[in-house]
Amino acid sequence: MQPNDPKAPWSEMHQDVNELERLIQEMLDYSSSGAQLPEMNLAEIPIKQLCQQLVDRIAMSHLQDLHVSVLGDDVNILADEHFIERAIANLLINGARYATSTLNITIEKHANIIQINIEDDGAGVAKNMRDKIFNPFYRPDESRNRLKGGAGLGLAIVKRIVDWHKGKCFVETSQLGGAKFVIQLINHF
């Protein structure tokens, strides 16, 4: 049912329903991904291009009012595109929640490692929470409002996807002053 005045409480109710749908989908995705290792469709992916396309796609919904850059090496990775895109999207959306004005994605190629960094200029993650932050349902600040918080599954999903790719993920302090989330994958090329 659509009310005559879409601006009143109807809009807030609609936002609440959308948030519940996102939370339910996140929980379903997490629980189904734990059952078994999914079939991985490994392919050669130009990771910098994938990151730029992802930024372009979610710019209006999650990245408005932020300066977002995709920087670094133009390299390929061997990965499942759907899952790696999901992991990077989760980190971008997480970074956008806490960034003040800037969000950077940097791709670095080291001898046998491809590193994807997502950095923001927000408050960062306290050192005593860095090991816990990838645990399912963990939220570092229970007092956060609903606009900033989620169900505590986004980073757990990132970790699971990176584990499937036999990589590492962690968080440290960004040169921008906020959090720097890192995905490291083996360089197969």
From TrEMBL:
User: Matching InterPro entries, A to Z?
Assistant: BphY/WalK/GraS-like (IPR050351), HATPase_C_sf (IPR036890), HATPase_dom (IPR003594), His_kinase_dom (IPR005467), Sig_transdc_His_kin-like_C (IPR004358)
> One Pfam family this chain carries?
HATPase_c
Gene3D superfamilies given for it?
A: Histidine kinase-like ATPase, C-terminal domain
Does the keyword S-adenosyl-L-methionine belong to this entry? no
Q: What is its EC number?
A: 2.7.13.3
GO MF terms, alphabetically ordered = ATP binding
* Key words, A-Z: ATP-binding, Kinase, Nucleotide-binding, Phosphoprotein, Transferase, Two-component regulatory system
- Tell me the PROSITE patterns matching this sequence: HIS_KIN
Enumerate the spans annotated as Histidine kinase domain. Answer: 13-189
Fetch the SMART domains from UniProt.
HATPase_c
Q: Per its UniProt entry, which superkingdom is the organism in?
A: Bacteria
Q: Catalyses which reaction?
A: ATP + protein L-histidine = ADP + protein N-phospho-L-histidine
UniProt name for this protein:
histidine kinase
